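Researcher: Structure for this, please.
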Amino acid sequence: MKVNELKEFFESANFDIEEPQTDHRDRFARKLERSRKSEKAGSNSGKIWSGLLSIAAVLALVLLLSNNFNQANQSDLASISPEMKQTQQFYSGLIEKELIALNAEATPETQMIIKDALQQLKKLENRYKRMENDLLESGKDKRVIHAMIQNFQQRIDLLSEVLEQIENIKSLNNQNYESNTI
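Model: Predicted structure, token format:
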């Protein structure tokens, strides 16, 4: 048979000759419900593991950052003056709070954005460490001090921006859920 003959055969043939069984709808509804329950159960365990991994990564970063901030060596802001020590403590505390808030928002949908934010934070932390060396070499130059404070501000801005993006994601998910429900 050629393609045209097959096409004509299927168009002219009536394949809808069987009636479904009387309990067809009930059986289909039960199967659909079982499928939904198994999907929810499977997705919850995946969410739990990815959530736990995200929490562990954020906690490790918080511990690393707090350890680095709390180490008082001669090349950090705290060694310059009591005011700079307060400034450093303020910013480091604010960063820790933002990291905790970020950790609380960890879901499979936000996992990638959080991972990217943590990588960006690590880069900013590495820049800060280089500035600590510059501060020591420059004899506590005000330009280096200003750059170190800006680095703290950049980290806080980054975390705030990510938290805002997560809120947007949550809002979009809620809108999609509301539009999909009947």
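Researcher: Any notable elements?
Model: The chain has a mean pLDDT of 79. DSSP finds five helices and no strands in the chain.
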